[in-house]
Amino acid sequence: MFCWRINFLTVVSLVVAACLSAAQSPLQKGLELRYEGVAKLQLGGQEIGAKISVNDLVAEVGEKQVATVASLRIFQPEGRETIPEAALRFLSITGSGEEEAIPVERLFSESPPTGFIGQFTTLLPVYFFPTEKLKEGNSWTVKERVLIRADLLGEFRYRVAGKEKVADSDCYVIERSLLNPVVLQPEQGAQVSKSSDRIWVETKTGLVKQIQRETHLQIREGQILVSTLQLALKSAQKLESNNFNKRLKELEAIRSIHQKVGVPVLMKPTKENLDGAEKELNGFMEQFKDSPYAPHIQMWQRLVQFVRQRLSQAEQRSRLIGKEAPDFELPSLDGKKVRLSSLKGKVVVLNFFAHW
Predict the structure, then answer these.
(1) Tens-digit pLDDT profile for residues 314-333
(2) pLDDT at 16
(3) pTM of the model
């Protein structure tokens, strides 16, 4: 009887511990988080900004509370009429709120290395904080990825600085800072010299409610790219079942599309690869034309067309190599007319230049 009681209590303890562990993650299946904010890039005296809207959907929660989050990020550059940039990241968020690393090849499909989406591949360093860490004055140091490289780690210090109210939510304020510069390319002097965040975290759930970030990327000696980010959580609600299942079908189709774009389009562009990607992209837009993920698909459609044009131009240039140059006539500096055919047998250097 005594042994049975010990075993029974042990089982009960394990069940309670498992429930407590599961309760640590506020990312539940079907939860949709919407964020809004602004991003800015500054290099020298030039600065460009963009409005951001983020739609994060918890598509699945697996073992050890690892959540699969489909994160749609749309950047709308300010000050000019431009087409928005849209990335769709499939994130694996651990039971402690951190984003797991993925291969760079997959990242190319989810967030092509262009414009704002290329500079802001990671928006939240942590999606939520375990509530046991949320105590005023508490601090800890961890090694985390810098930029997108899984092998490039920096030492970051977290500190719970106090409490503040954001909208109607009571929040802890957490300061996060890179303790030492992280060298990227020593021969060029490239390094991340500063990365600091101020994060507001809901006291009840541990969810990130708001974030402000500033990062300094030294491209080479004396040339620093400053990126800033401000993002705020606007809503968090569970999707209705039919809507959620519809989204899952769309995301399944996009995962298939991501196999056709990315590296096959950007790094191995062939007519066959471009035709295959275009077929998948057009098929998605026909089947899911009202999808919230349409901006991401439309962006890839534009990229495929751009790469196709470049490939066609390269093929045209290659056909001209070794062929006789077409004859033309231009004025020289002294005003005389010079025809190319009159210089036959001589080495001719053409200097193309422009000014404005």
Answers:
(1) 888 787 777 777 888 888 77
(2) 39
(3) 0.83
Rg (CA), the chain: 26
10 Å CB burial of residue 15 (0-12, 13-18, 19+) is: exposed
Query: Which tokens belong to 279?
Result: 């077929």
Write the CA distances from 65 to 19, 97, 115, 133, 178, integer angstroms: 11, 10, 33, 18, 28
The pLDDT tens digits for 290-323 are 999 999 999 999 999 999 999 988 888 787 777 7
Q: Which spans in the chain are helix H?
A: 2-23, 104-110, 115-119, 241-260, 263-266, 271-287, 294-320
Strands 190-202 and 329-331: unpaired
What domains, with CATH codes, occur in the chain?
Answer: 20-238 (2.30.230), 241-317 (no CATH)
Sign of the torsion formed by the C-alpha atoms of 278, 279, 283 and 284: negative
Determine the pLDDT at residue 354. 67
Interior/surface letters 309-330, b for 16+ CB within 10 angstroms, e for the rest:
eeeeeeeeeeeeeeeeeeeeee
Q: Is the Cα torsion angle 235, 196, 140, 192 positive or negative in sign?
A: positive
